[in-house]
Recover the amino acids of this structure.
């Protein structure tokens, strides 16, 4: 190799070395710049957020449940309350004597030891062993753990392991009154949220605000002594007081159940309320249920038909026809009508129950004898416009406003769809429908001097009066006082038999026997809703009761015979429970007879039903 070539080769190697050094230096400087930028971002730009994230990873948040408010009746009796219980959990990694611990848990809280062994064998550092254990059982369990004797290593270790169990406070909803007013009170789900009845309607008032425990812990999950330890206490829910009277609710349910059984009926409903202000003392259907035993409960038993189910009321509805006619001046108590046994309306025939020759009956006699032909004549004299407006005034086309889930307005077909036969049927309570409590509301307006009140269940929220409702502000005057006096005087005359009277009181009322319609079949023969509604004292009403028995079996299905005795029993008992002064020593109950009414089906010829015995 020549010296020139050697020099060129050395120069090339030198240049290559210089390029490598420059490349390496560039890469180093680039990496250094990235590291500096990253360090700047972490230490300066993201410092606060990353510090917070690190703190959050160290801090655990544990929710502390709030005690749900208690539900009381009007007398201060507890209908629903939340009691202290405990959830028991463990860190499976800290338990080696799994069989022994499982056996003790099974002995104290029930269940199978094998189930607890499975729970104690789970991966991870948390396993829920017992949910909502009673406080007394937990206290006994802790005491039994302390009583372990012996100085052996095994006993000492078992004690330590038992002491690692965690007992977290919780609450369980209990219903001391069991079936009493259960369909009103409702119940909560497994998470303590109201899902039926008052528990659902006033869930936001009852539930309270959960608390939170903040605890800073190390990687092993142990509290850091100098770390953050903060507790925000839970706020309990508000107690509420209902208008319900437990004694009346119990008696009404017992009598209703007995009537349904005696008449082999499908179901029944009862409403007991104050007609002056809308306070509901009792409202339920048969059968009822125990909210503390939901495993043995059916949806049918939970459903409060008195407050949510629509039905055609039959001749109890004639009270509205009467009041509307008097209010409009279309009718007066003595207004006479020619009333035949039957009347042809288009292709339909409406009949009274018992055959009679054509007779002249006054409005008073038509109502007391419950003639459907007579009621038809009354509605025709009023005219469709007046009659329909009357039903709107009584609130049939609007929600009654009751504070209960599922409450609904009645069914009232648009006026443009009404025909002569529908006007006739509606005059005696067929072709229109409403809930039992809505009918009680309408008749209350006649009883109290003309005010349409709002039936309601909430009486007070003692700790926060602002959450209570001014029910009186929703009242609406729909009838004149003189009209109500005239109507009441007529309805007094309906109470002519001992099984309809309330001893010691003068009362007013009306029976009803309505045929029941089924989808696609129209009115079905031998299926009736038998009812009676009334109030006392007649001239200063403080109590109203409605009883409906659906689909009674047997020869007797008339409202007065089927529902009348139960109505009378409940009304009399409730009057005594509320200490309503008696108005007379003897009361009413002199047996009389008279022409009875019928129920038209609205399709073809109608055989009808009698409202009286």
């Amino acid at each position: 190799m020549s010296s020139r070539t050697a020099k060129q080769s050395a120069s090339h190697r030198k240049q290559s070395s210089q390029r490598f050094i420059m490349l390496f230096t560039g890469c180093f400087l680039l990496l250094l710049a990235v590291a500096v930028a990253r360090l700047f971002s972490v230490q300066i730009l993201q410092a606060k957020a990353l510090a917070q994230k690190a703190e959050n990873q160290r801090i655990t948040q544990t929710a502390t449940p709030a005690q749900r408010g208690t539900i009381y009746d009007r007398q201060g009796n507890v209908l629903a309350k939340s009691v202290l219980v405990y959830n028991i959990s463990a860190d499976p990694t800290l338990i080696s004597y799994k069989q022994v611990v499982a056996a003790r848990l099974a002995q104290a809280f029930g269940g199978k030891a094998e189930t607890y062994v499975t729970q104690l064998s789970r991966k991870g550092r948390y396993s829920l062993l017992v949910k909502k254990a009673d406080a007394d059982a937990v206290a006994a369990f802790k005491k039994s753990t302390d009583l372990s004797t012996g100085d052996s290593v095994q006993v000492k270790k078992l004690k330590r392991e038992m002491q690692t169990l965690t007992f977290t406070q919780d609450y369980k909803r209990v219903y001391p009154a069991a079936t009493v007013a259960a369909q009103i009170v409702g119940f909560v789900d497994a998470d303590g949220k109201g899902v039926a009845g008052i528990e659902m309607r006033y869930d936001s008032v009852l539930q309270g605000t959960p608390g939170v425990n903040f605890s800073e812990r190390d990687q092993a999950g142990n509290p850091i002594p100098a770390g953050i330890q903060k507790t925000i206490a839970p706020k309990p829910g508000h107690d509420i007081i209902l208008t319900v009277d437990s004694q009346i609710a119990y008696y009404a349910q017992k009598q209703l159940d007995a009537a349904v059984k005696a008449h082999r009926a499908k179901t029944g409903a009862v409403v007991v309320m104050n007609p002056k202000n809308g306070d509901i003392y009792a409202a339920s259907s048969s059968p009822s249920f125990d909210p503390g035993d939901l495993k043995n409960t059916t949806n049918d038993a939970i459903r409060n038909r008195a407050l949510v189910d629509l039905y055609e009321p039959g001749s109890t509805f004639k009270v509205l026809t009467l009041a509307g006619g008097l209010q409009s001046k279309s009718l007066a108590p003595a207004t006479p009508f020619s009333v035949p046994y039957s009347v042809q309306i288009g292709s339909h025939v409406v009949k009274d129950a018992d055959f009679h020759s054509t007779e002249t009956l006054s409005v008073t006699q038509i109502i007391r004898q419950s003639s459907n032909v007579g009621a038809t004549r009354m509605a025709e004299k009023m005219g469709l416009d007046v009659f329909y407006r009357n039903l709107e005034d009584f609130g049939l086309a609007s929600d009654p406003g009751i504070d209960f889930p599922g409450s609904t307005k009645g069914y009232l077909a648009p006026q443009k769809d009404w025909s002569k036969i529908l006007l006739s049927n509606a005059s005696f309570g067929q072709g229109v429908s409403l809930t039992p409590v809505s009918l009680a509301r309408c008749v209350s307006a006649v009883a109290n001097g003309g005010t349409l009140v709002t039936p309601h269940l909430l009486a007070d929220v003692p700790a926060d009066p602002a959450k209570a409702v001014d029910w009186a502000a929703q009242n609406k005057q729909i009838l004149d006082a003189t009209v109500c006096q005239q109507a009441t005087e007529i309805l007094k005359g309906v109470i002519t038999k001992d099984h309809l009277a309330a001893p010691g009181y003068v009362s007013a009322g009306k029976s009803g026997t309505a045929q029941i319609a089924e989808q696609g079949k129209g009115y079905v023969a031998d299926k009736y809703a038998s009812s009676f509604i009334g109030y006392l004292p007649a001239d200063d009403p403080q109590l109203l009761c409605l009883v409906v028995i659906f689909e009674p079996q047997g020869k007797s299905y008339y409202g007065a015979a089927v529902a009348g005795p139960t109505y009378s029993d409940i009304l009399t008992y409730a009057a005594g429970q509320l200490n309503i002064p008696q108005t007379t020593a003897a009361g009413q109950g002199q047996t009389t007879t008279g022409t009875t009414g019928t129920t038209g089906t609205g399709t073809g010829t109608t055989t009808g039903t009698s409202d009286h015995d």
